[in-house]
């Protein structure tokens, strides 16, 4: 009777360790390549869509989310805080809010805060597929030449923002100043 309980405890501990020590930085074939060509209309209630041309000339962050995604809600306060710092422009691809009414994205931002400089509505999901998105949210750091420099899968927390994402942003910004 003791052996099954010990095996269960060991297995549970291994699963817990794996969850707590997962690496949210996944390899992507797009790292170092130009962002995919796209031109998205704005979400309802805004007049600023997003295109690949908008991602040229300065280091930026692209965040892919949907209003129905609970994990997307988790990271919005950090995005709002980052936007208030003015460190880097944050753009958005609003992914497939099709099951929701057209104004769901704007209602989400009214409720949570709007950290985005530009937002493109990807109603078909094709742009997200071209970016290699397979889960929400996903966050990309784009260099000043419009190339993908970093990809983070899932909601980020303060640690991953400060230790993973922002160091890439700072490095790219300093390379641009050199």
Automatic annotation (TrEMBL):
Residues 29-174 form the Thioredoxin domain. It comes from the Bacteria. InterPro entries: Periplasmic_diS_OxRdtase_DsbE, Redoxin, Thioredoxin-like_sf, Thioredoxin_domain, Thioredoxin_ResA/DsbE_sf. GO terms for biological process: cytochrome complex assembly. It comes from Limimaricola cinnabarinus LL-001. This is Cytochrome c-type biogenesis protein CcmG/DsbE, thiol:disulfide oxidoreductase. One of its GO terms (molecular function) is disulfide oxidoreductase activity. Keywords: Cytochrome c-type biogenesis, Disulfide bond, Redox-active center. Gene3D superfamilies: Glutaredoxin. It is found in: Cell envelope. Pfam families: Redoxin. One of its GO terms (cellular component) is outer membrane-bounded periplasmic space. Its main location: other. Belongs to the thioredoxin family. DsbE subfamily.
């Amino acid at each position: 009777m003791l052996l099954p309980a010990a095996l269960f405890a060991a297995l549970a501990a291994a699963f817990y360790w794996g969850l707590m020590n997962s690496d949210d930085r996944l390899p992507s074939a797009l790292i170092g390549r130009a962002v995919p060509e796209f031109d998205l209309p704005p979400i309802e209630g805004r007049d600023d869509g997003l295109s690949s041309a908008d991602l040229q000339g300065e280091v930026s962050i692209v965040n892919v989310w949907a209003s129905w995604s609970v994990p997307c809600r988790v990271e919005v306060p950090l995005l709002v805080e980052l936007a208030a710092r003015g460190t880097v422009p944050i753009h958005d691809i609003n992914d497939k809010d099709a099951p929701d009414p057209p104004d769901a994205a704007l209602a989400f931002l009214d409720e949570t805060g709007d950290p985005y400089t530009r937002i493109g509505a990807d109603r078909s999901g094709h742009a997200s597929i071209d970016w290699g998105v397979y889960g929400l949210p996903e966050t990309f750091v784009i260099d000043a030449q419009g190339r993908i420099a970093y990809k983070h899968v899932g909601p980020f927390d303060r640690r991953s923002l400060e230790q993973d994402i922002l160091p890439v942003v700072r490095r790219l910004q300093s390379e641009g100043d050199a």
